[in-house]
Amino acid sequence: MTVAPMIRYGLLLVGLSGLLAGGAVADAAKKNYRLHCMGCHQLDGTGSPENGIPSMRDEVGHFLRVPEGRAYLSQVPGTLNTPLSDGETAELLNWVMTNIGRASIPAGFKPYTADDVKTYRATVPQDIPGMRVRLLKQLEAVQIGSVR
Ligand code: HEC
Q1: Closest Cα partner for 98 from 14, 6, 33, 35?
Q2: Atom 13 (ligand 1): residue with closest C-alpha?
Q3: In this model, does residue 116 exceed pLDDT 90?
Q4: Distance between Cα 56 and ligand 1 center (Å)
Q5: 99 and 36 in contact (C-beta within 8 Å)?
Q6: What are phi and psi of 86, to 5 degrees?
Q7: Given pLDDT bands bounded at 50, 70 and 90, which one contains residue 147?
Q8: Cβ < 6 Å from ligand 1: which residues?
Q9: How many CB atoms neighbour CB 33 within 10 A?
Q10: Which atom of ligand 1 is nearest to the CA of 59?
């Protein structure tokens, strides 16, 4: 084997292992969703709005459009109280946003990191339901002001 094909082969292997690692992270997040979230939010994220569990399906990403929304998603009791580590919670949130919330996430979404989750967990506001109401009002204002 000459050098060029060897380098190409090496790059291919690096690329493949990157893909596999990404897949493993997503699989773990999906499993954690099933274990810790699905009981209330349903497998497809549609929840049970009539029982106070909002649908996240193609909607939850809208919260990322207002300043406190990113923190809020990490501070609701379901996300806050999982036994998962900050890193696992970040991966879980990223999975929820890019799968269940896919059609709603804004362009340029920056994935949550373990440090983000750590910070948000250390600064949870007292009134989460009040925060949700406030965020929904802000979102309404943004949408009224937008082109659509
Ligand atoms: C015991 C039921 C329950 C479980 C389990 C649960 N949630 Fe929730 N979740 C809710 C309710 C109810 C809300 C609405 C906000 C509130 O009242 O806390 C909510 C809201 C949310 C929101 C914000 C969506 C919105 O429209 O306000 C996110 C994000 C979320 N949950 C993620 C998760 C994740 C991730 C898990 C699993 C780690 C999880 N939840 C587990 C009940 C639950």
Answers
A1: 33
A2: 53
A3: yes
A4: 9
A5: no
A6: -55, -45
A7: very low
A8: 36-37, 39-41, 52-54, 56, 60, 73, 76-79, 82, 92, 96, 128-129, 132
A9: 18
A10: 26
Query: For residue 96, which of 39, 20, 43 has the smallest C-alpha distance?
Result: 43
Q: Which residue CA neighbors atom 26 of ligand 1 most closely?
A: 54
Q: Which residue has the higher pLDDT, 103 or 19?
A: 103
Q: Are 73 and 63 in contact (CB under 8 A)?
A: yes
Q: Write the CB contacts of 62 (distance below 8 Å, at least 6 apart in sequence).
A: 69, 104, 139
Ramachandran angles phi, psi of 130, nearest 5°: -65, -35
Say if residues 34 and 43 touch (Cβ distance below 8 Å).
Answer: yes
How far from 23 is each of 11, 37, 39, 70, 76, CA to CA, in Å? 18, 20, 24, 24, 27
Residue 43 Cα to ligand 1 middle (Å): 13
- pLDDT tens digits, residue range 13-44? 555 555 666 788 889 999 999 999 999 999 99
Tokens of 140: 């309404």
